[in-house]
Design a protein that fits this description.
42% helix, 6-stranded antiparallel sheet, single chain, 3-stranded mixed sheet, alpha+beta, globular, 202 residues
Amino acid sequence: MGEAYEIVYSGNPVKTVHTNSYINAIKSAAYWYNKSKKEKRSSVEVLRRVHFVPYMYTNEDGLFFYPVTKKDGDIRFFRLKGETLKECIEEVRTRKLHRRDNSRGAIKRISEMKNSLEAAEKLSESLEGFTWIGFRGLRLKRSTLTGDLLLDNKNKFLLFNLAWLKLNTEQDIIVKLRAFVLKSVNNSHVLSKSKGNSGNSG
């Protein structure tokens, strides 16, 4: 199905596109780009979620956006000025954007985002000591599909359970990460041995 991209026109989401390519998402927004040129004041953004911090979105230029649900149910994306996620979370708080949000549990969003960012940073620091190719290019993703960590090789995600990361030490995390490496090495050894035996039998 691919990753979900939100096409946002003048701050309002107008279309969701599922694709594995940002270029394809841009192509899907062609109508809105043309409309924007005609109206001049309007803007078009193609956004995707920041998978390790809930409620945050980003564009290809690395700018961050925060969605607010209005009383009528419509959603409006606000562009944030912060250069880092930490700065953007603080900006949401100071601009009180979460208090303008009418979606359920919106008032708790600041603490949710802070906790997720801290957990992701903790995991990133643990990953820095590994040179295994399997960890290269991975994106972190907060998930309830796992009770600890889960390696999604197909989509290049390292899924993490927020509660597990908060409760465990850096050493515990490193042990879990090392288990992924050992499993891969063992699987490669078994596969190589299997191929060797197959060749000998011929």
